[in-house]
Amino acid sequence: MNPTISIVNRARTVKDADIKRVLPALQRQITTQFEPVWGWGANLKFDAKKFDMKVIIKDTAGAGAYLGYHIKDGIPTTYIFAKDDIEDSGEYTSTLSHELLEMIADPAVNLYAIGKFRYRGRSRTALFGLEVCDPVESNYYKIDGVTVSDWVRPEWFEPEHAKGEMKTDFLGVVDAPFMIAQGGYADVRSGSHWHTLRGRKAKVKRQRHRAEARKVVSTRS
């Protein structure tokens, strides 16, 4: 019953053949690592004619950054920008991995967990969006030579666990619920305000389309 996610290439920076080459590694991450932990998976297809969800690869977001995450006719669609990613980090597959896992975990960007964070020296309660790669965004590993994104486990969203009790992400970078890894971040809503929590040396991406979609959804609710 897993959905199909169609990967559509509209970029010149990467060729169709390269995307087809990396898809088996991304599928392996989903099927053998992510799905057994989260219980949710997906079947990746290149430019599928019939699909449940879609990731469109373009070269650059451009100055206007008008493309983003949206849902049309009940079908989630997101974009990644290969040229921008390659210029920034030398590869684009970690971003593709990141977006695929988050799309699987929360396709409608409307799921949250209640957790705590500190703001101006005080502990506050907030809604943490179910973004499974943001908290460990700068941590990567390879599958068959393809760079993929680290991701947090369900325990990351469960406040009852004590620090050090278990690892809360795939690589074991963080060991406490709602802990932000170096280079990671989380967008949280406390009351009527949104806050971006950053780990040390975090370089938050210029385009955070799921974050913008989440804010739109929460405003309507």
> What is the terminal separation in angstroms?
29 Å
Helix content: 25-40%
Counting H and I runs of at least 4 residues, what is the number of helices?
4
Count the E strands.
Answer: 11
Strand content: 25-35%
Looking across the biggest beta sheet, what order are the strands in?
2-1-3-5-4
Biggest sheet: strands, sense, closure?
A: 5 strands, mixed
**Which whole number gives the mean pLDDT?**
90
| Class inferred from helices and paired strands | alpha/beta
Structure description:
Helix 1 packs across helix 3. This protein has a five-stranded mixed β-sheet. Strands 6-7-10-11 form a four-stranded antiparallel β-sheet, with helices on one face. It has a two-stranded antiparallel ribbon with strand order 8-9. Strand 8 (140-143) and strand 9 (146-149) form a beta hairpin. With 221 residues, the chain is of the alpha/beta class. The model has no long low-confidence stretch (mean pLDDT 90). It has helices at residues 16-38, 82-89, 93-105, 209-220; strands at residues 4-9, 43-46, 53-58, 70-72, 75-81, 112-119, 122-129, 140-143, 146-149, 185-190, 193-198.
